Amino acid sequence: MHIYFLNYNVMTGKRSLYCNKKKGSLLSIFFLVLTTILISACERQDSERTFNAKVLHLGLDCGDAFLIQFNSTAADVPVNSTNNIFYEIDLPNRFKVNNMDINVTFRTAAASEAMLCTTQDIAYKQVIITTASN
């Protein structure tokens, strides 16, 4: 890629066209790097993943929130000591059926998003469901 510049000399009144190959090459590299960064940023999913899970039942502790259990083969499930069982936040009502197999995309609930729960049940971690299907 070559960049051409129109040069005008005020003293002589002459116009000339010249090519700057070095600036053109640097500009090409810049656009290539910029395009690569933009494409890779668009593919990122904010650490959301799709897994197979099972809706277990209504939990005792957090209002109308159900417990879901991720399959043992699911990767990148947040570390817990409760056999991959979590309270769901924002699971659509049509999936709140005992023992239903579902695929979900989720993210871990931040402290400001977590439900307030009683201490009647085990303190399961909470995940926010962003998409669900069966």
Rg measurement, Å = 28 Å
* Poorly predicted tracts of residues: none
The rough form would be described as rod-shaped
Mean pLDDT: 78
Physical arrangement of strands within the biggest beta sheet: 3-4-5-7-6
Strand share of the residues? 35-45%
Distinct helical segment count = 1
Number of domains: 2
- Main sheet summary: 5 strands, mixed, barrel
Order of helices and strands: EEHEEEEE
Helix content: 10-25%
Measured between the Cα atoms of the first and last residue, the distance is 51 Å
Give the number of DSSP strands.
7
Question: What do you see in this structure?
Answer:
By secondary structure, this protein is α+β, with helices and mostly antiparallel strands. It folds into two domains: 3-43; 49-133. It is 17% helix and 36% strand. It has one helix and seven strands; from the N terminus they run E-E-H-E-E-E-E-E. The protein has one helix spanning 21-43; strands spanning 3-8, 15-20, 49-58, 66-70, 85-89, 101-108, 126-133. It has a five-stranded mixed barrel. A two-stranded antiparallel sheet has the order 1-2. The longest helix has 23 residues, at 21-43. The radius of gyration is 28 Å and the shape is rod-shaped. The chain starts with a strand and ends with a strand. The mean pLDDT is 78.
